Amino acid sequence: VFRPERYVDDAKDHAAVSANGHSQMRQYYTQIERHLTKNTFAVGTSFGVVDALLLPYYRWGNRMKIDMRSDYPAYTRFTERLGERPAVRKTLELEGIQLLG
Predict the structure, then answer these.
(1) 83, CA 20 to 30 Å: which among 31, 48, 58, 93?
(2) CB count, 10 Å around CB of 58?
(3) What whole-number distance in Å separates Cα of residue 22 and Cα of residue 28?
(4) Which helix (H) or strand (E) holds 95?
(5) Are 32 and 72 in contact (CB under 8 A)?
(6) What is d(CA 8, CA 3) in angstroms, rounded to the nearest whole number?
(7) Using H for helix, E for strand and C for coil, what is the string for the chain?
(8) Helix axes 73-83, 86-95, angle to 10 degrees
(9) By the 8 A CB rule, do 51 and 42 touch?
(10) pLDDT for residue 98
């Protein structure tokens, strides 16, 4: 999505590669949304590495100009909850990262 030149050399193909990546990411966000509608965490019943990995993916959605709040409300609630964790807050502050767009 963000660097199509890594996947195809011809600049005329970059837009198509980005569009395909955008479509694929929407499919993944839909799967995540469905899962988080029924579950508190990505895997199991407690915070784990997969939960942490879902945070940058959420931010990528915002970067891709997807209305994550409206389109994926369960994923947004999940992200807000994780953003309340002390270690996550501290990391975001140290890195100067805004979690929600």
Answers:
(1) 31
(2) 24
(3) 10
(4) helix 86-95
(5) yes
(6) 10
(7) CCCHHHCCCCHHHHHHHHHHHHHHHHHHHHHHHHHHHHCCCCCCCCCCHHHHHHHHHHHHHHHCCCCHHHHCHHHHHHHHHHHCCHHHHHHHHHHCCCCCC
(8) 90
(9) yes
(10) 86
Task: Tokens for 9, please give them.
Answer: 């050399």
Q: In angstroms, how far is CA 37 from the centroid of its own chain?
A: 15
Nearest Cα residue to 55 out of 89, 82, 36: 82
Tens digit of each residue's pLDDT, the chain (101 residues) = 888 899 899 999 999 999 999 999 999 999 999 999 999 999 999 999 999 999 999 999 999 999 999 999 999 999 999 999 999 999 999 999 888 86
- What's the residue count for the chain? 101
Helix axes 49-63 and 73-83, enclosed angle (nearest 10): 120
At position 48, the amino acid (one-letter code) is: G
Residue whose tokens read 């959420």: 58
Residue 95 neighbours by CB distance under 10 Å: 8
**Per-residue tokens: 29:** 């966000």
